[in-house]
Design brief:
Blueprint: E1 27-31, H1 32-48, E2 55-56, H2 61-65, H3 69-78, E3 84-86, H4 89-97, E4 104-106, H5 115-120, E5 123-127, H6 130-139, E6 149-154, H7 166-177, E7 182-188, H8 200-218, E8 225-227, H9 231-236, E9 243-244, E10 255-257, E11 260-262, E12 271-276, E13 279-283, E14 288-289, E15 295-296, E16 301-306, E17 323-326, E18 329-334, E19 342-345, E20 357-366, E21 369-373, H10 375-382, H11 386-392, E22 399-402
Parallel strand pairs: 1-22, 2-9, 3-4, 4-5, 5-6, 6-7, 7-8
Antiparallel strand pairs: 1-12, 10-11, 12-20, 13-16, 14-15, 16-19, 17-18, 17-20, 18-19, 20-21
Helix pairs in contact: 7-8
Pyridoxal-5'-phosphate is lined by residues 59, 61, 107, 190, 230-232, 245-248.
C-alpha cells in the first residue's frame, strides 16, 4: 500500500481485546459505541433547541480525558464531529499524526516557538495577546499559495484566565486580521460558572460576549465560527452560537448543576474500569488489613486482594470509602489503598474465587445480580470531580476499545 493513500492513513489502531502479553488484569474499557451515541445525543439536543447549524467540536484535551485521544478522535470524526478542541499544540500534532483531518482548535494559549509547526499541521491556535501578535508578525507567514494560519480570537468575559478583555477585543481582532498569512476564523469565550444553579454570572458573560460580537458584525468582520458552551452550558441551552465544545458529555457523564444531573437521561457512560481478584484469604475477627492497620475486620472475614492502587489513579481517598463490584454485588474497600493494590471485603459474596472480575467503575452483571458504580458515585466517594477521575487514570492502566 502506498504511503500516500489519502483516506486510509491510520497510524494507531484501537485495540479491541486484551493482548496475550498483558499479565495484569486491570484495564479501562472504552465503548466506542457509547462515544458515538453521546455525540448524537448532543446533536439531537441542539436540534431540539432549533440551533442551526449546531456544530459540535468535542473537547479531547488531556488524551481525551484519559480515554486515548487518537482512538476517540477517529471514532468521533467518522461519526461526524465537526472539529476537535485540545489544550496543547502537542496534543493537536498527535491527532494529525494519527490521521485526523477535521479542524483542530488548540486552546491552551501558549505556543512557544511552535507557530510554524501549528501552520504546518493545520492546527488552529486560540490567540488574544500582544505576545501572540508579535510572534505571528515575526513568523511572517507566506501569503501565496500556502494555506493561511487560521486562528480563533478568545475574549475574557469573566473567567479571568485567557483572552482579550472585551474593551480591547475589536482592536485586537483587527490587528490579527491585518497580519499577512493569518485568518481569524473564530471568536470564542469560556464560562466560569456554567454549572452553578443561578445564572447570574453566565448571563453577565453572555451579554459582554454579545456586545463584542455585535460590534464586530456591524463593522462587517469576516464570518466567524462563534462558540462558548461547554457541556453544562450546552445542556442548559445557553451560549450555543455556531458551535459547542462539550468535553464531559462526550464521555457520557452528566453535568452536575445544583442537585440536577443535566443530560443524564440521554448519555451513555463510555468508561468502564475493571480488574480481577488476585488473592483471597480468610481472616479471623480482629485482624488488621493493610498499611497502618487502619482496616480491621470485626468478624471472621474473607478478604480479596485487587491489583489496582493509587499509582493507577485509584486515589488514596477511596480508603475505607470506595466500593467495587464482584459477581454482581457491591462490596467495600477495606483498609488503606496502597500503590499497586487494595483490599475488598468479600465475606458476603457467595462463590467468590480468585480471577473473578472486579468492576471498579461501571456496571457488572453477575450471578448475584446487576450492579453499577456510576462516575458520580465514584467521584463523590473519593472527593474528586468526574473530570479529575478520568484524567487521573494513569498510563499504567491499558485502555481497550470495544465497539459495543
Ligand atoms: C475543557 C474545556 C471545555 C470542555 O468542558 P466540559 O465541562 O468538559 O464540557 C470547553 N471549553 C474550554 C475552553 C475548555 O477548557
Amino acid at each position: 500500500m502506498s504511503d500516500e493513500a489519502p483516506s486510509s492513513v491510520r497510524i494507531q489502531r484501537p485495540r479491541r481485546s486484551a493482548p496475550e502479553d498483558i499479565v495484569r488484569p486491570t484495564r479501562a474499557e472504552v465503548s466506542l459505541d457509547a462515544l458515538r451515541h453521546n455525540l448524537h445525543a448532543v446533536r439531537t439536543h441542539l436540534s431540539q433547541l432549533c440551533v442551526s447549524p449546531g456544530k459540535v467540536w468535542p473537547v479531547i484535551k488531556a488524551d481525551a480525558y484519559g480515554h486515548g485521544a487518537p482512538a476517540v478522535a477517529r471514532t468521533l470524526e467518522r461519526a461526524g464531529a465537526d472539529g476537535f478542541c485540545v489544550a496543547l499544540a502537542e496534543e493537536g500534532i498527535e491527532l494529525r499524526e494519527a490521521g485526523i483531518r477535521a479542524p483542530i482548535l488548540v486552546m491552551g494559549g501558549y505556543y512557544g516557538h511552535a507557530y510554524a509547526e501549528l501552520a504546518h499541521h493545520r492546527l488552529t491556535p486560540v490567540v488574544y495577546g500582544e505576545n501572540h501578535l508579535e510572534a505571528l508578525r515575526l513568523l511572517a507567514l507566506p501569503d501565496g499559495d500556502r494555506m493561511p494560519l487560521r486562528v480563533h480570537l478568545k475574549v475574557d468575559t469573566g473567567m479571568g484566565r485567557l483572552g482579550v478583555l472585551p474593551a480591547a477585543a475589536r482592536a485586537r481582532f483587527e490587528a490579527f486580521s491585518s497580519l499577512p498569512g493569518v485568518e481569524v476564523t473564530g471568536l470564542m469565550t469560556h464560562f466560569a460558572e456554567a454549572d452553578t444553579p443561578d445564572l447570574f454570572a453566565m448571563r453577565a458573560q453572555l451579554s459582554s460576549f454579545d456586545a463584542v460580537l455585535r460590534d464586530l458584525r456591524t463593522r462587517g468582520a469576516a464570518p466567524l465560527v462563534v462558540h462558548a458552551a461547554n457541556s453544562a452550558a450546552t445542556w442548559r441551552g445557553l451560549g450555543l452560537y455556531d458551535a459547542v465544545r462539550p468535553g464531559l458529555a462526550m464521555y457520557g457523564v452528566a453535568s452536575p448543576v445544583g442537585d440536577k444531573a443535566l443530560g443524564e437521561a440521554s448519555l451513555r457512560p463510555v468508561l468502564r474500569l475493571r480488574t480481577e481478584i488476585v488473592d483471597l484469604r480468610e481472616l479471623p475477627a480482629g485482624q488488621a488489613v493493610g498499611y497502618g492497620g487502619l482496616g480491621r475486620v470485626t468478624r471472621a472475614s474473607r478478604v480479596a486482594t485487587v491489583p489496582i492502587g493509587y499509582a493507577d489513579g485509584y486515589v488514596r481517598s477511596h480508603t475505607q470509602a470506595g466500593r467495587m463490584l464482584v459477581r454482581g454485588r457491591a462490596v467495600p474497600v477495606l483498609g488503606v489503598v496502597s500503590m499497586d493494590m487494595c483490599m475488598i471485603d468479600v465475606t458476603d459474596v457467595p462463590g467468590v474465587s480468585i480471577a473473578d472480575e472486579v468492576v471498579v467503575l461501571g456496571t457488572q452483571q453477575g450471578p448475584l445480580g446487576h450492579a453499577s458504580i456510576s462516575m458520580s458515585e465514584f467521584a463523590a466517594s473519593a472527593g474528586q470531580i468526574p473530570w479529575e477521575v478520568m484524567t487521573t487514570l494513569s498510563r499504567r492502566v491499558p485502555r481497550f476499545y470495544r465497539e459495543s
